[in-house]
Design brief:
With about 230 residues, this protein is mainly alpha-helical. The chain is about 65% helix and about 5% strand. Strands 1-2 form a two-stranded antiparallel sheet. The relative contact order is 0.10.
Length: about 230
């Protein structure tokens, strides 16, 4: 009887493992089909179109609130403080690029005699994937206006630099971080127009350079060069 009981226990264990595996596969298929209630079709389409979100479920205002230590708009998102701290260096890049874009867009519009609404929410491209960045509209609008004023009244550059520094420091302070030392100078010295939502980190540029270098033909040896010269002379 004991061996029969042992066989039954083994069979039940195998069945339990199979059921767990099957339930996970079903969840995957539901996600791909957009019928999993935890993964909306909108989130799935965003993942396919823009790539993975380096901050997981956090995006837009929820990402900002999480970094500020405030309550999230989506109560179903669970924030791990330890994991969030590990992602702060990435968020520094995201927030910096958002601020640079706002000021530069104001300058670009001013050069073209245009005016548009400042983007409090902006998608930021990263090395792997992208994320929507959010900052309060009042600060976003003021940075855009500073960009406009830099073009219209360049003689006020020093005053506007001080104000830009104050806004940048305040925003980074709200998320518990210190603004990069060179950020304000970088924002004020930018002369090229950035396309909406398109940013590349130095890592991306390095990857491109590595790919381009890999495609270049290898340099010829000294012997091959001498042969080529001899052929040309002949």
């Amino acid at each position: 009887m004991e061996w029969i009981l042992g066989i039954l226990i083994i069979i039940l264990a195998v069945v339990a493992i199979f059921v767990i595996y099957l339930s996970e596969r079903i969840t995957v298929f539901e996600t791909l089909l957009g019928i999993n209630p935890k993964v909306t079709g909108e989130k799935l389409a965003e993942h396919v179109h823009f790539g993975p979100n380096p901050f997981g479920e956090l995006s837009g205002k929820d990402l900002w609130n999480a970094m500020c230590g405030e309550e999230l708009e989506d109560p179903e998102i669970i924030v791990d403080p330890v994991d969030l701290d590990k992602k702060r260096p990435r968020y520094e890049f995201v927030l910096s690029k958002h601020l640079e874009s706002l000021l530069e867009e104001g300058r670009f519009d001013a050069r073209n005699g245009e005016r548009s609404e400042a983007k409090a929410v902006l998608r930021i491209q990263m090395l792997r994937g992208s994320v929507e960045s959010y900052i309060p509209f009042a600060e976003a609008s003021r940075l855009y206006e500073i960009g406009q004023e830099l073009e219209a009244n360049p003689d006020k550059g020093e005053k506007l630099k001080v104000e830009t520094g104050e806004i940048v420091d305040e925003l980074f302070s709200q998320v518990g971080m210190t603004a990069p030392n060179t950020l304000v100078d970088s924002m004020l010295s930018m002369t090229h127009a950035l396309s909406e939502g398109e940013f590349e980190s130095p890592e991306i540029d390095q990857d491109k350079e590595a790919d381009e270098s890999a495609q270049l033909p290898a340099p010829s040896s000294d012997t091959e060069l001498e042969n080529a010269k001899t052929t040309n002379k002949t």
